[in-house]
Design a protein that fits this description.
Distance between the termini: 49 Å
Number of strands: 14
Number of helices: 1
């Protein structure tokens, strides 16, 4: 159902990637427009409501292709053929549409990021998520978010088994990326409640009987408040106002606050305040590693 030009309601919306696998699916997608000017390439969306949605991102084993990037590139190439005179077509022209989004609400949403190069499989189940935007700029590849409230998220990270390979030439494609190349996310506030995080390294099947097993983590009752964050390339910078959680080993994190930087090669916690039932750590903590698998 489409009412030109202020709202659209789609049922069983589906988009596939270049491999004909699911890229985006939504049982129900409702969109409300404030401005819809096709000829001026301008769209102002006040609200998007997703119910029963699935988003599947996939990076191939070479590290050079991501399915959502291919879709955007193909769309831009098609748009140029239709909209631009032959003598105005130029390689590398910018995304021409002016798109602005107000609010995004998601119910019962599944997100998956499969990275064949890094042997990483990330799955996120979100029963409820409300996002309010400051700005959405596809030309600058920028998502500027005012607030995000998530309740009941279930995050699972699987580090997939690696098969020993003969030495290869030096890798120049880069390691693990949080976002497609060139994209940035900025946010004023992120609130997470009643959530769970699990990590399993399938290259190590032994689970420690006592204490925290960092290769087989299971954190529950997670409550998190983060302010002034930025995600770009392989790095996350944010002010963690409060974090609490319980690990299956029995360890309880009562409180953590810090100015944090997390990347593919290290974690730095400045102005740290960490409290458990029997200990307290403050000031500064930093450690480095070769990659996310460490």
């Amino acid at each position: 159902e489409i009412s030109f030009f202020n709202k659209a309601a789609l049922v069983n919306f589906y988009m596939e990637d270049h491999e004909h696998d699911t890229l985006i699916y939504a049982r129900e997608l409702n969109i409300r427009f404030k401005v819809f000017e096709i000829f001026n390439k301008k769209i102002r969306v006040t609200d998007i409501m997703l119910d029963g949605a699935t988003l599947h991102l996939h990076r191939d084993s070479t590290g050079e292709r991501m399915n959502i990037t291919d879709v955007f590139n193909n769309y831009q190439a098609s748009a140029k053929k239709v909209d631009e005179p032959k003598d105005l077509k130029k390689p590398g022209a910018e995304f021409a549409w002016d798109i602005n989004l107000g609010n995004l609400s998601m119910k019962q949403t599944d997100f998956r990021y499969l990275d064949d190069k890094s042997h990483l499989d990330l799955k996120v189940r979100v029963p409820s998520c409300d996002i309010a935007m400051n700005d959405l700029d596809f030309k600058k590849k920028l998502f500027n978010i005012r607030s995000t409230d998530i309740d009941g998220a279930d995050v699972r990270v699987d580090l997939l088994k690696r098969i020993p390979q003969p030495p290869v030439k030096k890798d120049t494609t880069g390691g693990f990326q949080l976002l497609p190349p060139g994209f940035k996310v900025m946010f004023d506030k992120l609130a997470l409640s009643n959530s769970r995080f699990r990590l399993n390294d399938h290259n190590n099947d032994t689970i420690l009987p006592n204490g925290i097993d960092f290769k087989h983590l299971d954190l529950s009752a997670i409550t998190l408040l983060v302010e002034k964050g930025k995600i770009a390339d392989d790095s996350l910078l944010a002010n963690i106002t409060s974090l609490s959680a319980r690990e299956r080993s029995g360890f309880v994190l009562e409180h953590l606050s810090s100015n944090a930087k997390v990347s593919a090669h290290g974690v730095t916690l400045d102005k740290l305040n960490l409290k458990t039932a029997n200990s307290e750590i403050g000031d500064f903590l930093s450690f480095s590693y070769a990659g996310p698998r460490d």
